[in-house]
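Render this sequence as a predicted structure.
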Amino acid sequence: MTYDALAPAASAGGFPVKRSLVVLGAGESGIGAALLAKQQGYDVFVSDGGVIKDIYRQELAVNNISFEEGHHSWDKILGADEIVKSPGIPEKSDLMKKVREKQVPVISEIELAYRFSKDARIIAITGSNGKSTTTALTYHIFKTAGLNAAMVGNIGISYARQVATAPAEYYIIEVSSFQLDDITSFKPDVAILLNITPDHLDRYDYKMENYVASKFRIAMNQTKEDYFIYCMDDPEIMSHLSKQTIYSTSIPFTIMEPLKKEGGFIANDQLNIQLNDDPVIVSIYDLALKGKHNLYNSMAAGIAGKTMDIRKEKIRESLTSFKSLEHRMEYVTTVRGVDFINDSKATNVNSLWFALESMEQPVILIMGGVDKGNDYTAIQDLVKEKVKGIVCLGVDNQPIQDALTAFTPNMVNTSAMKDAVQEAFKLATKGDVVLLSPACASFDLFKNYEDRGKQFKEAVREL
């Protein structure tokens, strides 16, 4: 299907023709880019090889933006002055091969949005795990301080949509490696790199060094007036830092040792943020987010707040009052003494490792889905120590069984969420926790991880 907006009047009298911009992909990112580009005077065309959601199709029509779905018009795409590529489109696709061959300039949606929000302060957060939690916590700090802040990117509405419809003074952005791959000038005032563990390697020629380099693009345009906040306990980050020069002010955080310089650390059961000679100190027992991994997230968000001169009282208040995100270690309910926790957003093994590491009760684990070449040996010790039973939920559960059967007394196969929850409840006794933490993508049985999490909560409430 193709919808053509009213063609703009032909240029006359020496006026320049509008720059043509093609947006590839009509998800939230693509639609946001289209709306912003249209507002800024571009001649916009949206092309999606699949089916566009009704709500997005209506937005395009209402805003008089030409689009097509179910196919690609090569003349329009390859004739564009510039292309905005949605992050879900791999470079290996025939579409991108043709675009690269034609040498049409390609940018990401965050690059487009940055062009029209340079007067704002930008805090960008990336990493393999913990991005959404840290983004939400950072936003909570800024809102608690009374600042005009917006939370955008992978976590909710697109950065470009926000710039087009409700500009803010501060943008707290969750960014993925896919988005960073197509930036040219995007420069956050504060860049946070939480951690780097194997993920999405199929998009990086199965080379870890390519994935690491992609993550580090978050700091590539920064200058000494900007901040680069990083985890000094992460071996991939530290290895890359030994080879790459960072031009911004670097601020580390660690749970391994007290720091004598500026940064974040844990000492005497207290979280410490040392910056600008005015430390923030919070008891780890008062933090809203529990678990070792959340110490990192809390330090990173707190440091970001401190770089923007937010008062330490507001940072401390925020770190102790934050409510966790839906689908990320989300407590659902307790049924006959058994707690149920929804961690559907855990789509890789490292996220599952963090979830298990924070558990203090015996665990019945529901896991499985689309396996991205996962190495489950990383969690064998934690499974042996904490997991009473594993309920596999997926079309192909064999890799999980091969890696983990020997490390837990119970292993059950299911192919529907309701069955998985019922089997887990059968294995649980009072004082246990049933944890949905799949370590896999959701697309075999569900629309996305949100759908998976919602079905989990519905099945739990039906017990």
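Summary. The domain at 2-8+17-107 is CATH 3.40.50.720 (Rossmann fold). The chain has three domains: 2-8+17-107, 111-321, 330-461.
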